[in-house]
Specification:
This protein is 18% helix and 33% strand. It is α+β, with helices and mostly antiparallel strands.
Length: 212
């Protein structure tokens, strides 16, 4: 006696593949999301990394850090111009006190930038810098400045920030540098990470030459 034949249930059909256009759009969206995440993370690390990279390589007109002033200045003069920039939507007004000055080579000079926080909240920024022509960076000696130090500004606060520098007399012994008469020092402020809010009573007022 043979067993009765039972009908078999066919396996469930596989879902139809997604249209090629949808698969492509999904891949593009995923890649764009990854790029945005990387850019956000890089924005916080950009200034410290730039500082380290320029100090190690001397890249992009990076100036030198002097520990003492020169003994004397030469009669030869050079024009130093000052440039200011804001990047990344930082709500600050940032400008040099003077757009250019004429200095003697070897003369120690103090120049001022003025910064105003134009927002109604406390904000913080970091400044990077460079010098052009790029080859002049090795002769532009900074004794003190506000670069790569986080600056926290109270709502509506205005502050003067100083840079103390001189142009090294070794410039006069470099025949390749005889053609230019002007050096431009350019600063750019970037937003720093949000800081913890502080009571206004704790915000110290800045004095000329006091906050470098």
């Amino acid at each position: 006696m043979t067993a009765p034949h039972l009908p078999t249930t066919p396996p469930p059909a596989a879902p139809p593949p997604a249209p090629r256009g949808l698969r492509r759009d999904g891949a593009v969206a995923a890649i764009c999301g990854l790029v945005v995440a990387l850019m956000v993370g890089a924005s916080y690390a950009a200034v410290p990394f730039y500082d380290w990279f320029c100090r190690v390589t001397g890249f992009n007109g990076t100036t030198q850090r002097a520990t003492a002033a020169p003994a004397h200045a030469l009669d030869r003069t050079i024009t130093v111009r000052f440039d200011s920039n804001i990047h990344g939507g930082l709500p600050w007004k940032f400008q040099p006190e003077k757009t250019e000055i004429e200095v003697r080579i070897g003369e120690v000079v103090t120049a001022y930038y003025k910064v105003t926080n134009q927002s109604a909240r406390e904000t913080a920024g970091l400044a990077s810098y460079n010098v052009t022509p790029l080859t002049a960076g090795s002769y532009f000696q900074k004794i003190n400045c506000f670069c790569f130090t986080e600056q926290t500004m109270a709502p509506g606060e205005t502050r003067e920030m100083a840079v103390v520098f001189y142009v090294d007399e070794a410039l006069t012994r470099d025949g390749d540098q005889d053609s230019f008469k002007t050096i431009t020092l350019s600063y750019t402020f970037y937003p720093a990470k949000d800081t913890q809010p502080k009571p206004l009573a704790e915000v110290k007022s800045d004095r000329r030459g006091g906050n470098l």
